[in-house]
Amino acid sequence: MKLLPADPTGLCFGVRRAIEALEAALAEHGTVYALGSPIHNPQEVARLAGEGLIVVEKAEEVPEGGVAFVRAHGVGPGIVEELRRRSARVVDGTCPFVRRAQERASLLESEGYRVFLVGDRDHPEVQGITARLGGDVRVVGSAEEIGDLSGSGLRAGVLSQTTQRAEVFSDVVAALSLKVSELKVFNTICNATAERQNSVRQLARQVDGIIVIGGKNSANTRKLVEISRSQGAPTLWIEKSEELDWRWLEGKLQIGVAAGASTPDWLIQKLITTLAIPQVAKGEGN
Ligand code: F3S
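# FE3-S4 cluster complex -> structure
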């Protein structure tokens, strides 16, 4: 069996940068309160918890004067304000590409455009962006969700959640352009996402199957799985090498390996090592 890793794959620049900042803060302060899970990967969160990480859901849970970590997804201004009120020391891991999307959304609003954000309204990045805006923002997950804007003579601005699929974004832009009188477009999909999606798209055509490793709670990992399946490649989605289904591998000569942008290097390495010694691993798994 031949293994073909997608290239690039795994941790993106923004998550790597945020986790490095978090690790430095843990080393310096011992205890750090992360607002929401710092990375969409349960195994990595468990490792960081061993170093002193405490995950909280709200800024109100950070003790007065505590150290608070803002993950790569960023947060809205209300949360930053609450942390300030609590005299928290803030370690800001907001990805610069997310920051750019936040700033572009504010710019569109200040220029009087009705803002359309292509993304998942439940995603923390999207919530952090919409929290900056006055309320006249529409989050849409597809072109169909735009609805009827006829006769509105609308000036619209559109941008994207950074991890959105390029096809979905371009569909929404195309549909919007036919429904409004003026459209300003900011493509805020980050390169890391597009590169990882393209590498999976190409790999899917060359192999007998693809193993995607990454958190089941990771939106970007889910999208890699969707793309792989849309290319017709049998696709196995696991969080860790212990979940490998050896029967799924049977008869496949070339296997692609891809990882979400929130999958740490050590989990990918463990998977590749496990696949490289299938007899031993099989024995252990039975
Ligand atoms: Fe940033 Fe892109 Fe990663 S927005 S967090 S580099 S997927």
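# post-check
Residues 114 and 156 are 5 Å apart (CA to CA).
Residues 12-15, 72, 95, 97-98, 162-163, 190, 192-193, 220, 261 surround FE3-S4 cluster (CB under 6 Å).
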